[in-house]
Amino acid sequence: MHEIPLLWRLHKVHHSSERLDWLAAARFHPLESVWNKLITLLPLFLLGFSPRITVFFWPLIAIYPIFLHSNVRWTYGWLGYLVASPAFHRWHHAADREALNKNYGGPLPFFDFLFGTAHFPRRKPASYGLANEDAPAGFFRQLIWPFQNRA
Fold first, then answer.
1. How many angstroms separate the CA atoms of 86 and 67, rounded?
2. What is the pLDDT of residues 95-117, one digit of tens each?
3. DSSP code at position 94
4. pLDDT of residue 130
């Protein structure tokens, strides 16, 4: 969602939060939520998995993002190379220049380490939010923000 301009326009609503806490996990444009569910669930159904499999994974899919965005310093030690911790994920939301376009792997930082996009200094970022743009104030303005021309 960071590399495809149309998807970024939706996803930047999530990244516009200047405070990183558990509520940031729920700050999404509704169309991004539809997109995420589609790309997560459709492959499972096309591969023949039963719809009941989503019931099994639903608690993890629903709760872990809330925890991942929480304001705690947990790192998980060596396990943090396989499963993202809140301390690792906060750098994905940092507005610091050194952290831009880093930590894409969501709950699986292994891919960031593999592809060279991992960034995990043992300090907190100086700031969160969008580095080069200000989000409009208000719920309805943010709903239409992805569809406005950037003039």
1. 7
2. 999 999 999 988 899 999 999 99
3. B
4. 93
Cα pseudo-dihedral 117, 122, 123, 128, rounded to 10: 30
Alpha-carbon distances of 17 from 14, 21, 45, 56, 77, rounded to whole Å: 6, 9, 33, 31, 27
Q: Where are the beta strands (DSSP E) in 38-151?
A: none
For 83-86, the CB contacts below 8 A with 24+ separation are 83/107, 83/108, 83/109, 84/108, 84/109
3-state class of 83 per DSSP? coil
Domain residue ranges in the chain: 5-126+137-147
Instruction: State the average pLDDT over residues 120-142.
Output: 92
Q: What's residue 28's pLDDT?
A: 92
